[in-house]
Structures are given as structure tokens and as C-alpha cells.
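Q: Give me the 3D complex with adenosine-5'-triphosphate.
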Amino acid sequence: MRITPNAHLEDLKTGKFLSIVGNNYKFFSLITDLSLEVSHPDILLFPPSQEETLLTNALKQKDMYATANLKPMLMLGKDNTPKPVKTIPPHFASVYEADNKDIALIFGDEKEPTKKFFNIGCPLDMTTPVCLNLEKLTERSNGIFGKTGTGKTFLTRLILAGLIKNEKAVNVIFDMHSEYGLQARKEGKDQSFVKGLKTLFPSKVVIFSLDPASTRRRGGNPDVELTLSYQSIHVEDILSLQQELNLHATAFEAAHLVAARYKKDWLQVLLAQGETLKEFAQEIGAHPESIAALYRKLKRIERLPFFKSHAGGAYKQSSVIEQMMEYIDKGIHIIIEFGNFTSSFVYLLIANIITRRIHAQYIQKTEKFLGSQQKQDEPKKLMITIEEAHKFLNPQAARQTIFGIIAREMRKYYVSLLIVDQRPSGIDSEIISQIGTKVVAQLNDDKDIQAVLTGISNATNLRSILATLDSKKQVLLLGHAMTMPVVIQTREYDEKFYKAMGTQVTAKQIDEFIEEIF
Ligand SMILES: Nc1ncnc2c1ncn2[C@@H]1O[C@H](COP(=O)(O)OP(=O)(O)OP(=O)(O)O)[C@@H](O)[C@H]1O
Ligand SMILES: [Mg+2]
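A: Here is the predicted complex, encoded as C-alpha cells.
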């Protein structure tokens, strides 16, 4: 695009959303790059001085100009249906800022009664909201990426609020830093707090806490205190800790040997050794050093107060997962708070144990539904949110652990992931290319930028847009739930947002209510 001489050049930014009006189509495009041009190299050799305004003005008419590179992402025919771009507009077609009607047409309108669309922010320098298609979002696993402090957690909370309000999926959130439930700190001069999801939707969200004392200190009572039995830890759960614990593959073989002999009690039996480790290794036919390493590394589990031994009273083993499933069946969302247990070790272990078991339940539910084909048996869509996702989905872990399985099976069993991560290059590339919708904030590392763009057709153009994002509250949205890639200024998480999330009673609901009474 050639920019007219009287345009305010500095108002044009990369990532800006424009429409090129051709004869039969409108081409919706993003600015990917801007540059200054001259018609003859002599102008650069002998530029006009500050005083030579007449010369400057004359040159500006034709010989000095600026151009913007536009990448058409979508075209709209006369029938207003969006199509992939397969042609180009003619020479000298005019370019405009996309208007409000265009944006609503492309990205959907939040006011639509299907409650499919959720306002997530506005295109750069515009005030019309861009909507995320929540139904499409829940059809795949999704990712939110960006370096630290770019607003990933805020945006995740925003999207989760949309899913909760519009009831498009049930969420299980592994909340490592206690930022989703009650309240979260907002950086800035005033150090204020923002409301969490439990505070916004008290009847739709429950908190399971590993550290109830910490939850209470923050002014809320956990709905459930989370305790697990040693028997709930399977060898697969330890597999995902391989990197974290720096364990050798032979240690896992040893673990499998213990489990083959002692089944569910394998961990308790192992941890009860000590002096007798050598004989124990002999007894099960494992390498003594592997058993010793395994024992040493796993001994720290005994210091975690939320693991209860089976022998210690009337503790019912599967109760926590049963409780979770009851909530999920009712459409109630679960936040798992870790309180002061913020080590990756605990986070990985707990997230694996719980997810593996919920997933197993979902397989049963899905099979039941496939058998009966009754609408009431259809499981509710479930979305599991994890932070620091590269720890779960690095190439090594992704092959073996439950999170890799879920990401790869593409919600065959109604379960998908929402992964939040600052190091996407650490995630297995096959998994990244399976991700449906990506929300990408600023990333500085080239490897990370390359990783988020794997499997995307316009990668080179989007790369230049990614490189110029602001360091906060600006993201590139692309993928399954978006009609076209777009850069947005994210929606502010503030009083206005809380109000929008408030459960407003509709006239129809009041009518139904009155009918019910009489
Ligand atoms: N949508 C938003 N509305 C209001 N404030 C926001 C928004 N997004 C980001 N912020 C501000 O940016 C700060 C950092 O955001 P956030 O904690 O979400 O970053 P992050 O990417 O999750 O960082 P980390 O990787 O360290 O967890 C917030 O404390 C808040 O002040
Ligand atoms: Mg965060």
C-alpha cells in the first residue's frame, strides 16, 4: 500500500487491521511492515534541508513516500461470507480502516443469543470488540503464550470467565500461584487486587486446596481440602517427573518392578524400606542402585502433608476424584489451589494424578454415551488449564504422560487442555502443531517465536507482527476459534468487566420463573 502524502504516518502501526476494497471482494489485512521510499536515489544523496520547505513539499507530492506491506488474511464477497484469500485486489484499490460493521461480521457479535461469542479485546487503535468463538475454542486444545509479565494469567482468567459465564465448557484449573480463585495482585503503582473467578461466580466455582491454611489467610474458605492417598500415585505419574527429579530411565524400570509385585501399594512399600533397600532390590529383581535412587528422590513425598497413608484411619481412597466428578457433572468449575506448595515437583505430581483419573472417568462416560447414544449421557466438555506447560509437554514427557495423550487425542473423549506457557520452544513440536487456538503475547526468543508459529501458513508475515507487539496487554490471536489472525489490545480486567460478568436475569427467565410459581 502506498500511503498518501497527507496521512499521519506515525499513526500507522504494524498489526493494524485494514480492509482493501476490490471490485468484488473486501480483503481484510494486517500491516506486517512499514518502510520509507524515494523515487530516485539522488534524493537520499542530496536531501532537502530543513529550510527548503518548498522543495520538501514538492518532493512529498510524488518522490518521497511511505509504503506499508499488507497481508490479506480473509476476503469477504458481496454475500458477506468470509472466505480464505485466493486472489488479490487490483492495482490502486483503496484501503480503509476496517469499520465496526466489518469487525462484527468477521468476528461475531457478543450480543448474539447463542452466547457463542466473547469479547476479548479490540484491534489496535480501535474500539469495536473482537470476539472469540467459545464453541470453537472448546473443540480443541488451546495455548496462551508470552514471556513473563505480558498478561498471560490475566488473559487466561478473562477467557475462563467467558467460558464460565456462557457455560461452554467445565473447567479444571491447576492454579499454581493462587491467582484464579479468590483474588490476584495487579502490578502497578497502586498494587491493587483484582477479583478471582470464585469471587465473580461464587455458585459456579469451587476451590480445592492443598494448603487450606493459605487459602484461609487470603480470606476465603476452600470448599474442599484436597488430600490424596499414596495408592493414588501410579508409576506413570512419576514418569512426568523424570526431568524434575533428574531420574535415570533405569529408575523407572525399577519402579515398574515394584509396582508389578505390590500393585497399588508400591510407593508405600518402597518408602517403608531404608536399611533394607538392598534386600528389597534383590527380592523384586531390580538393580540396587536404581532402587536406591528412586527411594531417595521419592522420599520427599513423605514430607507433603496432603498425602495420607491408607492405614491412617477411615480415609477413603478415591473420594476426592469422586467429589470432583460430581461437581463436573453439575457443570461446576474446579480450581485447585497449591497455596505454599509452589514447587514444580508438587505441581506436576498433583496435576498428573488428578488429570489421569479424571480422564479415565471421561473415557468411561464417553463410551457409555457412544453405547446409549442418549443425549443425557453426553459428557460435558471439559477444559483443563495448566501453567508452565512445557514442564508437562516437553518432547520427553509428551510421549508418555496423560497431558501428551490428551493433547494428541484431540478431545475424542471431550477433554481438552488450555496451556499457559512462557517457553513454547520447550513444548513438543507435534503437540504445538495440534493446538487449535493460539493467543500469543510478546516473545523475545527466536526459538519461542518459531515454536508458536509451527504449522501455520502465514508464518513469515506473522513473525514480523509478533516481533513488534507491546510488552503488555497486546496479543496476536490466531487459529481455530478466530476467523482470521488479528492483533488486539486485550480487554481490561476491571470493574467494568466484573459488571459484564454479573449474572443478569433476562426477561425470559423472569417469565419462566413466574410461570413455574403459578
Ligand atoms: N487484561 C488486563 N487487564 C488489566 N491489567 C492487566 C491485563 N493484562 C495484564 N495486566 C497487568 O499486567 C500484569 C502482568 O500480568 P500477568 O500476571 O497476567 O502476566 P503473566 O504473563 O502471567 O506473567 P508470568 O509469566 O510472570 O506469570 C498484571 O499484574 C496487570 O497489572
Ligand atoms: Mg502468570
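A quick observation: The first strand starts at residue 2 and ends at 3.
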